[in-house]
Specification:
53% helix, nine-stranded mixed β-sheet, single chain, 762 residues, alpha+beta, 20 helices, six-stranded mixed β-sheet
C-alpha cells in the first residue's frame, strides 16, 4: 500500500511537466473508454429493438384441439413489402366484439377507414403523397415508441371491416414469445462483434498502452533510481502502476460521461440506416464493469510490465544503454495466423472451400486475431532489420541518421505506427464482411419480377396493375390440379401471354406465333416436365358462378426462349396459352400473375408502390430481392462505418500522443545534434524518415495480410464473391494518406530553439 501512496505522491509532486503528462494520460484513457462503451452498447441496442418487435406480435386464441378461435376476436393481417431498400410493414386490423388490449404504442384499435402510422411514414407522406395508396384511410394518430423497433421504422396499422379481411388471423393479445427473426441473426451479430473487436479493440489496446507509457524513458530512469535506493522489485512496479491506474480510473469515469452525452445527442439525430432511442443505449452493468474495472486492470498490467526492466536491472535504463534486440519468437503469431488464412485462400483457388462451418467459425477469427497481434509484435524487429540495411547502403546523412536511430531504438518509432497499421489491417477485413452480406442481399438479375396470387385480385385491379408505370411485361401462370394424373412427375404449367409479352418477359425468343398453342423450350436448361405431344392437361377455371375446366393437349410446335441465369419466369416444358383461348370472364382457379420490370431501385419502388395502392392486402413475392437482407446490410454497414471511424480516431490519437511524447523524449538528442552543426532541414528530414519508415514497414504487410484475411473470409462465407479487387485501390489510397499525415505530423518536431536545461540533462 505504501508503494501506491509513494507513486501518487511522486505524481503530484513531480512538477508541472509530469502533471501535464498525467492529464494527457487521463484524457487519452477517457477517449478509449468512450469508444469501448460504444462498441459494448451496440448489442444492447439491437436486443432492445428486437424486444419491442416481439412485444407487438399477435397471439392467436386456440381451443383445446389447437384450432384457431375466431368468434368475437379482432383479426389482423400483416404484410411486409420493400419500400425501396427498407421494409414497410402494414398491419390490417378489423375490430371484434371482444375486448382486447391494442398493440403496444396504440391507444386503441383503428376503426374501419382509420390508420395509425409511425412518425417516419407521416414525414414521408408530406413529401410523397403517393404513399397514401399503401396506407389508406384517415390518420387517427401516431404509433408510440413502445410499438416501434426504431424511430424511423416504417409501420402502419390500417383499420378495415371484417368482410375485407377473410384471411385475417384472430388475436387475443400481443407479445408472442416466439417473435420474428431479429434484426441481425446470431451469425451476423457474431461476425459484427468480431469485426468491431478487430477494428476498434485492437487499436484501442495499443492506444491505452501508449497512454500508459508516456514519458517511458524518463519514468524508467526515475524508477531505476528508486530501485537503487533500496526499493524492492515488486514495490518499484507498484509505484509505476499507481500512476497508470489513477489515470485510467479517472479516464474511465470521464469516458463514460462522454459516452452518455454522445448517446443522448446522436440517438436524437440518428445515423444513416440506423437509429435508436436514448434508453436503448443506456449504460449497462456489464459495460460499467468492463470500463471501470477492465481498463484500470489493463493499466495496472501495462504499468507493471513497463517497469519490469527498470526493476530487474536498473543500470540497463541509463541513457547510454543499448536496447535489446527483439526476439525471433515475435514472428510466431504472425506466421500461425497467416498460415491458416493462406490455407483458406488456397482452398478457394482450387475450388475446395471447407464445408465445416463450425470449425471455420472459430478458426478464421483466431487466425485473423493472431495476424493482427503478430503485425504489432513483429513490427519492431522488421523495422530494426530494414533500418540496419538502409543505414549501411544509403549516402544520405538525414536518412542514415534516422535509420541508425531506429536501429538503436526500434520500439520508440513503432509505438507511433502500430495503431495505424492495425487499423488498415482491420479495415480490409471489415470490407470483406460488407461484401459478403451485400452479395447475399443484392439482386444481380437483369430483370425484377413480382409474383401475386391471381385470386387475390379483382378484374379491375388486375387491369390496373398490368399497366403500371415501369412494368415492361406481365404473364399469367396456370397451375394444373393434382387430379390430372401427373402427381408423380412435375406438371406442365400454362403461361397465358402474347408473343409480344413473352419477348419482353425473357431475354430471347424464337419461333413464337400469336394465337397458337405452343410448347415452351429453353435449350440451355434441363427439361423437368416429361410430357409428349398430344398429352392432355387440365386447368381449373371459373366463369361467373360456374366452375369448370380448360382441357388442352400438349402441342408439337415449340417456341424457344432463354431466361437470364437465376431468373424463373417461365417453366421449361410448359405450354404457351394465347389469351384468346380463355373464354370471356374466365378466372383461373390456381394462377400467379407475374410482373417484370427493370431492376433499378426507383423502378422497383414505383412498381411496389403502385401494387400497394391498387391492392394493398395482396401479397407480393420478389425474386432476388430480400428486403430484410437489405436492411441487415444497411445496419451492418453503418455499424462498421462507426467502428472504422472510431478506429480511425483511436489510431490518429495514438499517433498524435505517441509522436508528441517521442518528440519530447528526443529533445536532448535533437539539441545535441543542433549544437554539433546539424541544420534544421536535416533534422526534420530525419524525424520524418524515423516515423515514416516503420509505418511503411508495417503498412505493406498489413495490406497483404488484410487482403488475405478478407479473401479467406469470403471463401468460407460461401458467397458468389471470393476475390475483391475493387477494394485494393481504396486501401492503397488510405495507406498513402496515413503515411502523408504521419510525415506532415513529424515536420514540426524539430526546431531552432535550444533549451539550456536540455543541454545540462544530456
Amino acid at each position: 500500500m505504501r508503494e501506491l501512496v509513494l507513486g501518487l505522491r511522486l505524481l503530484f509532486g513531480s512538477g508541472p511537466g509530469h502533471r501535464a503528462r498525467f492529464l494527457l494520460m487521463t484524457l487519452g484513457s477517457s477517449l478509449g473508454v468512450c469508444c469501448l462503451a460504444i462498441v459494448l452498447a451496440i448489442p444492447g441496442i439491437l436486443d432492445a429493438q428486437d424486444a419491442r418487435v416481439t412485444a407487438r406480435q399477435p397471439v392467436t386464441p386456440r381451443d383445446s384441439s389447437g384450432a384457431a378461435v375466431v368468434d368475437g376476436y379482432p383479426v389482423t393481417l400483416s404484410r411486409t413489402d420493400p419500400y425501396g431498400s427498407t421494409p414497410l410493414t402494414r398491419v390490417f386490423v378489423a375490430r371484434g366484439t371482444r375486448t382486447v388490449e391494442p398493440p403496444p404504442g396504440l391507444r386503441s384499435f383503428p376503426r374501419d377507414g382509420q390508420v395509425f402510422v409511425s412518425p417516419r411514414i407521416r414525414e414521408l407522406l408530406r413529401h410523397n403523397p403517393a404513399l397514401a395508396q399503401l396506407v389508406p384511410g384517415g390518420e387517427a394518430g401516431l404509433i408510440g415508441p413502445a410499438g416501434l423497433a426504431r424511430p424511423d421504422e416504417l409501420i402502419a396499422y390500417v383499420g378495415m371491416s371484417r368482410a375485407e379481411l377473410p384471411d385475417g388471423d384472430p388475436v387475443e393479445r400481443f407479445g408472442e414469445s416466439h417473435g420474428p427473426l431479429p434484426a441481425l441473426d446470431p451469425t451476423t451479430l457474431a461476425i459484427l462483434r468480431f469485426t468491431l473487436a478487430a477494428v476498434v479493440l485492437l487499436p484501442l489496446v495499443v492506444f491505452l498502452s501508449v497512454c500508459a507509457r508516456l514519458s517511458a524513458a524518463d519514468r524508467a530512469r526515475r524508477l531505476a533510481a528508486l530501485r537503487l535506493l533500496g526499493l524492492s522489485k515488486k514495490g518499484t512496479q507498484r509505484v509505476n502502476a499507481a500512476e497508470t491506474v489513477a489515470a485510467a480510473g479517472l479516464g474511465a469515469i470521464l469516458g463514460l460521461g462522454e459516452y452518455w452525452t454522445m448517446n443522448q445527442v446522436v440517438s436524437r439525430v440518428g445515423l444513416p440506416g440506423f437509429t435508436w432511442y436514448p434508453a436503448d443505449g443506456a449504460l449497462t452493468f456489464q459495460t460499467l464493469a468492463v470500463c471501470l474495472v477492465g481498463c484500470p486492470a489493463l493499466a495496472w498490467y501495462v504499468g507493471r510490465a513497463s517497469a519490469g526492466k527498470a526493476a530487474a536491472n536498473p543500470l540497463a535504463v541509463r541513457r547510454g544503454a543499448v536496447e535489446k534486440t527483439p526476439s525471433g519468437w515475435v514472428f510466431l503469431p504472425l506466421i500461425a495466423g497467416l498460415g491458416v488464412i493462406t490455407g483458406y485462400c488456397v482452398a478457394g483457388v482450387t475450388h475446395h472451400a471447407p464445408t465445416s462451418t463450425a470449425l471455420s467459425a472459430w478458426l478464421m477469427p483466431s487466425a485473423a486475431l493472431l495476424s493482427g497481434i503478430g503485425l504489432a509484435l513483429s513490427l519492431p524487429a522488421c523495422s530494426r532489420f530494414l533500418a540496419r540495411r538502409v543505414a549501411c547502403s544509403t549516402r544520405s546523412f538525414s536518412l542514415g541518421l534516422a535509420m541508425r536511430r531506429n536501429e538503436a531504438e526500434p520500439g520508440g518509432a513503432v509505438r507511433v505506427a502500430t495503431g495505424l497499421v492495425l487499423l488498415v489491417f482491420a479495415a480490409s477485413l471489415a470490407q470483406g464482411v460488407v461484401i459478403q452480406l451485400d452479395s447475399v442481399a443484392r439482386s444481380t438479375l437483369p430483370f425484377q419480377t413480382y409474383d401475386i396470387q391471381y385470386g387475390q385480385l379483382s378484374g379491375a385491379q388486375r387491369q390496373a396493375i398490368e399497366v403500371l408505370p415501369g412494368v415492361r411485361a406481365h404473364v399469367v401462370t396456370l397451375n394444373p390440379p393434382l387430379s390430372d394424373g401427373l402427381e408423380q412427375s412435375p406438371r406442365p404449367e400454362g403461361v397465358v401471354a402474347t408473343c409480344g409479352q413473352l419477348r419482353k418477359a425473357v431475354r430471347w425468343t424464337a419461333g413464337c406465333v400469336d394465337g397458337r398453342l405452343m410448347r415452351l423450350c429453353d435449350p440451355g436448361q434441363p427439361q423437368d416436365v416429361r410430357t409428349e405431344a398430344g398429352d392432355e392437361v387440365r386447368f381449373d377455371r371459373r366463369v361467373g358462378e360456374r366452375s369448370g375446366g380448360l382441357n388442352l393437349k400438349m402441342p408439337r410446335q415449340t417456341v424457344r426462349y432463354r431466361e437470364p441465369e437465376g431468373l424463373m419466369v417461365l417453366q421449361n416444358g410448359g405450354v404457351l396459352v394465347p389469351p384468346s383461348m380463355l373464354p370471356p370472364g374466365a378466372i383461373p382457379q390456381d394462377a400467379t400473375l407475374t410482373l417484370v420490370s427493370a431492376p433499378g431501385e426507383k423502378t422497383v419502388r414505383a412498381v411496389l408502390d403502385g401494387i400497394g395502392g391498387i391492392a394493398p392486402t395482396a401479397g407480393v413475392l420478389t425474386q432476388g430481392l430480400i428486403v430484410d437482407a437489405f436492411q441487415r446490410v444497411t445496419i451492418v454497414r453503418t455499424l462498421l462505418a462507426i467502428g472504422i471511424t472510431l478506429g480511425l480516431v483511436i489510431g490518429v490519437a495514438a499517433y498524435l500522443v505517441a509522436a508528441t511524447d517521442r518528440a519530447v523524449e528526443r529533445r536532448p538528442q535533437v539539441t545535441a545534434l543542433t549544437l554539433l552543426g546539424a541544420r534544421t532541414r536535416t533534422l526534420r528530414a530525419a524525424q520524418v524518415a524515423q516515423v515514416v519508415s516503420p509505418l511503411v514497414v508495417g503498412l505493406v504487410p498489413a495490406l497483404v495480410a488484410g487482403k488475405l484475411a478478407e479473401s479467406s473470409y469470403l471463401v468460407i462465407g460461401g458467397g458468389p464473391v471470393l476475390w475483391d479487387g475493387a477494394g485494393v485501390p481504396v486501401l492503397l489510397a488510405s495507406a498513402l494518406v496515413v503515411v502523408a499525415v504521419a510525415a506532415v505530423g513529424a515536420l514540426p518536431l524539430a526546431g531552432r530553439r535550444i533549451d539550456p536545461e536540455l543541454i545540462r540533462r544530456h
